[in-house]
Specification:
The structure is a single chain. The protein is an all-alpha fold and 186 residues long. The protein contains ten helices and no strands. α2 packs antiparallel against α3. The protein is elongated.
């Protein structure tokens, strides 16, 4: 779906004339005086510039649609914050920093998700093993003791498992079947 939006965006972008150097200088002077139409045209006329910068970050963790959105937002901010000097250098710096930050945030989010998935998987494994050993489902307190965690941490992991299952619907078994009824009620 993101690829479709990106392709539509590229088609629309072909209809927009980039700013020439002369036009940019005139628009910057007008924008400094607060003229909103000049700011709008500066943004519009530099969308291809922002796209080119976004392409440098392709295949690093975000879709092109997300990269374009970040780049365009940073371009808008660069136009709004412009005071004087080399606009293209300032815009490039702002856009690149924004894209780097977006990738960093995405990577951190992925790491958190992976760590939580590991915790959920470990809890499921320990729960299944304990059910075999005990001949019944382990309680939250028993799981907490075995995993050297607090009961509250176990409940949080279980909640994450239930939330993930209800969102993704990836597992045929219910969370209670996966971890045991008593574990969720205990």
């Amino acid at each position: 779906m993101n690829e479709e939006y990106y392709q539509m965006y590229l088609e629309e972008l072909r209809q927009i004339k980039p700013c020439s150097d002369d036009e940019r200088q005139i628009l910057l002077e007008r924008a400094l005086k607060g003229e909103e139409s000049a700011k709008k045209r500066l943004i519009e006329g530099h969308l291809i510039f922002a796209l080119a910068l976004a392409k440098d970050f392709r295949d690093k963790g975000l879709s092109m649609s997300d990269l374009v959105q970040e780049a365009n937002l940073a371009l808008t901010l660069a136009v709004g914050e412009y005071q004087e000097g080399d606009f293209l250098a300032q815009a490039k710096e702002k856009i690149s920093a924004s894209l780097q930050e977006a990738l960093k945030c995405q990577q951190q989010e992925n790491q958190v998700e992976e760590a939580m998935a590991e915790r959920v998987n470990r809890l499921q494994e320990v729960s299944a093993r304990m059910a075999q050993e005990l001949g019944r489902e382990a309680t939250v307190e028993e799981l907490a003791q075995r995993m050297e965690m607090s009961s509250e941490e176990i409940r949080e992991i279980m909640k994450l498992a239930v939330d993930a299952l209800s969102v993704t619907g990836e597992f045929a078994r219910t969370p209670a079947e996966s971890l045991g009824e008593e574990t969720f009620n205990g």
